[in-house]
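pls design
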């Protein structure tokens, strides 16, 4: 779209966002998409160097700040940085994440479990809390949290991760039910497998993006690997006024994996083991 003077109009023109975990993967993709659509962005990440390097590349529209999303003071400071530097906060994108504690539940270390919940669930709670502090008096705002397919079904991630992501879906609904009174919308995005550092590091050794891309495409019903931009497009929509009638929702973006229980062809093309078994073939 173009304004009367012929200049392109960004879908997020005049808006300011904080994006946690913005230095890498889905967060980085979202930072780039938000800036391309006219937003100012505070990139809040554990890795200050990476956040600042990205901000520098993007010019005046972005700043990088250090934040551990599990620490209330850090999250509060990231929100305050948006107001101090850019004058307002229109979107809080709680996206930072880790895989966290892995392994059988009977062997899981309690401190590892607690740390996983602290980053993946306390982090979004703190993001919503401090965004609401600024957005409430303003009477508007959009809060987004990155959930996961593992927040909608069991067996798709480790126990702590799955628990926290289910919590994100509940927290999104709960906060939406309160904050609608203040004109604040609260939504989540549940990605399937996306090629990022997180998935590229699941195997042994260094991050292998090509291997992750091939493996993800193979398991994806649509036969393609999810990229950070696939999630960033949805985040732009949720941050923009285009989604003004939407709150409390979790958008699933997973190549149709959960809809078809991960099967390609499945039931319909003889690919389901269960049906094959019953038919005795
Ligand atoms: N990649 C996937 O397949 C996938 C699927 C579903 C959901 N997700 C979710 O997407 C989000 C982003 O993950 P990604 O895949 O882009 O991973 P990534 O590792 O590329 O990026 C995560 C970013 O979060 C930062 N971070 C980690 N812990 C932090 C903390 N305590 N405080 C602040 N920053 C912290 C990291 O430094 C990094 O920049 C996570 O919430 C993850 O659970 C990812």
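designed seq:
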């Amino acid at each position: 779209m173009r304004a009367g003077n012929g200049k392109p109009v960004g879908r997020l023109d005049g808006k300011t966002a904080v994006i946690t975990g913005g230095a890498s993967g889905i967060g980085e993709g979202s930072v780039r998409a938000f800036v391309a659509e006219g937003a100012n962005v505070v990139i809040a990440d554990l890795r200050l160097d990476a956040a600042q390097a990205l901000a520098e590349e993007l010019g005046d529209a972005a700043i990088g700040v250090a934040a551990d999303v599990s620490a209330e003071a850090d999250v509060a400071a990231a929100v305050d940085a948006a107001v101090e530097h850019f004058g307002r906060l229109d979107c809080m994108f709680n996206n930072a994440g880790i895989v966290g504690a892995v392994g059988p539940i009977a062997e899981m270390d309690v401190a590892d479990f607690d740390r996983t919940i602290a980053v993946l669930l306390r982090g979004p709670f703190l993001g919503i809390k401090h965004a609401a502090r600024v957005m409430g008096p303003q009477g508007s705002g959009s809060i987004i949290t990155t959930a996961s397919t593992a927040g909608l079904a069991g067996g798709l991630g480790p126990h702590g991760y799955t628990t926290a992501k289910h919590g994100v879906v509940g927290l999104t609904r709960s906060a939406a039910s309160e904050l609608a009174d203040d004109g604040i919308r609260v939504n989540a995005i549940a990605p399937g497998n996306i090629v990022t550092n997180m998935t590229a590091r699941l195997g042994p050794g260094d991050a292998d993006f090509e291997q992750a891309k091939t493996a993800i495409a193979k398991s994806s019903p649509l036969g393609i690997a999810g990229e950070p931009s696939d999630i960033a497009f949805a985040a732009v929509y949720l941050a923009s006024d285009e989604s003004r009638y939407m709150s409390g929702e979790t958008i699933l973006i997973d190549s149709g994996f959960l809809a078809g229980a991960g099967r390609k062809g499945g039931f319909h093309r003889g690919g389901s083991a269960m049906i094959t078994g019953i038919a005795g073939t």
